[in-house]
Amino acid sequence: MAAELESQPQTWARAAALVDEQRALPARGARIAVVGCGTSWFMAQSYAWLRESGGHGETDAFTASEAFVDRGYDAVVALTRSGTTTEVLQLVEHLRGRVRTIGVIGDPTSPLVGLVDEAITLPFADERSVVQTRFATTALALFRASLGENLDRAITDAAAAVAETLDPELVDAEQYSFLGQGWSVGLAHEAALKMREASQSWTESYPSMEYRHGPIAIAAPGRVTWQFGEAPAGLADDVRATGARFEAGALDPMADLVRAQRVALARASARGLDPDAPRNLTRSVILDA
């Protein structure tokens, strides 16, 4: 996980340069759905918000097992590192011949490549570790670049996040609540998932404005409330009043996710856990027929 995590500035730069692959994604004005499971679902949420808020077309994000895709979409984008996830394969099979499907896939030899109408493969971002880091963020980098974003700042910030000396207080916290607004809500959910997967930590995640509607009750000394991107007015003071640490940096939110990944890895190492083979998890969820 460590080497894969630290390679993200390089893989994001490669994704930003994939002009042909970016053009294969749905064109401006198309009405689309983006589907995935776990980490891929959270990246789908971020992409959907960025695409629709940027005026590129109506965009919905679904977890593959709960997707409402029979709504007249022009295309469905399926995001999956392995290309073997049962729910994604079943959904794409259901759509064959009826709705254009585009796969964004880590493994170019996977069965999904042959099922979708258009396969965008990112083998340079594929991973050995069960716990995803670089494939998810590299796919999101590809999506962001396809929407016309310049990723230079994000790449520079990611390099800084990789090189940062982590504060022991941040690593040793009892509990973490991750927050985001807009496209960074998906990143908050992903950060919490990384903590749970890699280090078996107590983590939660919410849209920032929802945090004061109940979840702030768990904020206390020795715990962390971590905001991705700009925080709502007054939230930092409300959190600090509880004695909890309020963490909010000036980095691109995707680069701040790299920091959270590093904290998860550091906690796993401190506990003698192997994030490349976490408890109860496998690289892909493949269900029996």
Features:
Rossmann fold, 12 helices, 4-stranded parallel beta sheet, 2 domains, 289 residues, 41% helix, alpha/beta, 5-stranded parallel beta sheet, globular
Structural class: alpha/beta
CATH class category name of the largest domain = Alpha Beta
Supply the CATH superfamily name of the largest domain: Glucose-6-phosphate isomerase like protein, domain 1
Low-pLDDT runs: none
Spatial strand sequence of the major β-sheet:
2-1-3-4-5
Q: Give the H and E element order.
A: HHHEHEEHEHEHHHEHEEHEH
Q: Which fold name fills CATH's third level, the topology of the largest domain?
A: Rossmann fold
Shape annotation = globular
Question: Largest beta sheet, briefly?
Answer: 5 strands, parallel
Keywords: Isomerase, Repeat
Organism: Agromyces aureus
InterPro entries: GlmS/AgaS_SIS (IPR035466), GlmS/FrlB_SIS (IPR035490), SIS_dom (IPR001347), SIS_dom_sf (IPR046348)
GO biological process, one term: carbohydrate derivative metabolic process
Secondary-structure map with pairings?
Elements: H1 2-6, H2 8-16, H3 19-24, E1 32-36, H4 39-53, E2 59-63, E3 75-80, H5 86-95, E4 100-105, H6 112-115, E5 118-121, H7 134-146, H8 152-163, H9 168-171, E6 175-180, H10 184-199, E7 203-207, E8 223-228, H11 235-240, E9 245-247, H12 253-270
Parallel strand pairs: 1-2, 1-3, 3-4, 4-5, 6-7, 6-8, 8-9
Helix pairs in contact: 2-7, 2-8, 4-7, 4-10, 8-12, 10-12
What can you tell me about this protein's structure?
The protein is an alpha/beta fold and 289 residues long. It has 2 domains: 2-146, Rossmann fold (3-Layer(aba) Sandwich); 164-270, Glucose-6-phosphate isomerase like protein, domain 1 (Rossmann fold, 3-Layer(aba) Sandwich). It is 41% helix and 16% strand. The protein is built from 12 helices and 9 strands. It has helices spanning 2-6, 8-16, 19-24, 39-53, 86-95, 112-115, 134-146, 152-163, 168-171, 184-199, 235-240, 253-270, and strands spanning 32-36, 59-63, 75-80, 100-105, 118-121, 175-180, 203-207, 223-228, 245-247. The chain has a 5-stranded parallel β-sheet with strand order 2-1-3-4-5, sandwiched between helices. Helix 4 (39-53) runs parallel beside helix 7 (134-146), helix 8 packs parallel to helix 12 (253-270) and helix 10 (184-199) packs parallel to helix 12. The longest helix is centred in the last third of the chain and has 18 residues, at 253-270. It is globular, with a radius of gyration of 18 Å. The model has no long low-confidence stretch (mean pLDDT 95). GO terms for molecular function: carbohydrate derivative binding; isomerase activity. InterPro entries: GlmS/AgaS_SIS, GlmS/FrlB_SIS, SIS_dom, SIS_dom_sf.
